[in-house]
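>> Question from a student workshop board

For tomorrow's exercise we were told to take the sequence and the ligand below, predict the bound structure, and bring the output to class. My setup keeps failing. Could a helper post the expected result so I can at least see what it should look like? The ligand is zinc ion.
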Amino acid sequence: MATVRLQTIFLILLAILSAWAAAKPSGSPSGSDVGSKKRLLLISFDGFRWDYDQDVDTPNLDRLAWDGVKAKYITPPMLTMTSPSHFTTITGRWVEDHEVVHNMMFNTKTNLKVPHKVTLRRSEWWDNGVLPLWITAQNQGLKTASFHYPGGGANYSGQAVNRAIVEESGHIDDNETEWRQNIDTVLSWFSEEDFDLVTLYYGEPDNVGHMRGPDHPDRKAIIRQIDRTVGYLRDGITRHMLNSTLNVIITSDHGMTTVKKRPLVDEIVLNKYLDLLKLASFEILDYGGFGILTPRPGKEQEVLEALAKAPNLTVYRKEDMPESFHLGRSQRMPPVVVIADLGFNLNSRFIVYVNKGDHGFHNGEMDMKMIFRAFGPDFKKNFLSEPFDSIHIYPLMCRLLDIRAEPNNGSLEHTADMLIGTHDGGSRMSPTSPMMLTFIFVFISTTML
Ligand SMILES: [Zn+2]
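>> Workshop helper replied:
Here is what the output should look like for this input. Compare the format with yours to find the bug.
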């Protein structure tokens, strides 16, 4: 009887041990690899819509799909604009929390409006009490750098990113030679100067998307250029002997859609519906699909009613915006927000906008979704992820760098399955389990006999 029971216990323990062995990550020498020191490169290609690689030959991006992780697409936060979205990725916070609510620094009282590239250096626009990943990582002993990534040029609570290169006004976005030099530079920071985290930003394909439109052959040409750059990056990682330590995430900040123009549609000119000078004390309305304005005292209802009559847009009181926008609690956001229907640009008084493509529209629109790829020692191969919100990239990066995250609105549960050695959102058996099981086995055996 005792022998039968002993055999049963032995078989159960054998099953548990087999399950433990199967749960061990296959591609890494030990189960603790995810937690050990690794380096991380985050690359953002501005305005890389989720499907831009589907009508162009992109061998290197395709290779990433079976050599790493590909998400079907990911969703930017509202609003779908460069600085707000990039800052959500690097902080894991909604726009209403980090308060970088526009590409342009503005002041509704003084009517100050600062151009995007100048705003990149203005700490008072970026530093609102939310710490970006660079600073958090530095405070935990890591060395970080930002190469052209929005927000990298600011100070946070007086602290600068260890090394920051800020994009100058007039920077040429599509110079392939410079793209390669930037990759060489960043890889040498990892291999020769022991940096742990670098964020690298490229202004394409956003620029071409605006100038020519997402369907233009030039957009396809720039995607081929990006693909060659990804190939150059892969070769560079090998050349710098970073294959076993460097994880790479490639993503973007929003998509792009074709701007609808006359004679196809009636373009939106808001001054047709309300006298802006008389009713508004501040406005940014000539900026793609997203507009903001501050009504003059006592004029809010009049503004809202007038805008409600304008076709092809939705007008919101800040307080009444859908919770899913995560914009309503912002202190900085003016009281009235206008979001145009997909492809309809907002114009205040005249149509001076020459862009063929734009963004800033509702993040539920497929044209606003963007790419996500990841590869490196901690990522599974040939893993196709379901879509997720870009806010969840932040806890993933903290996990990859093995640092404590700041309070954030993201969750690792959307990305944990991409990682080697994680199961059901990250619960792993301890490497000491076999010893413990042997002890239990011996203990039970001796007490039963
Ligand atoms: Zn952008």
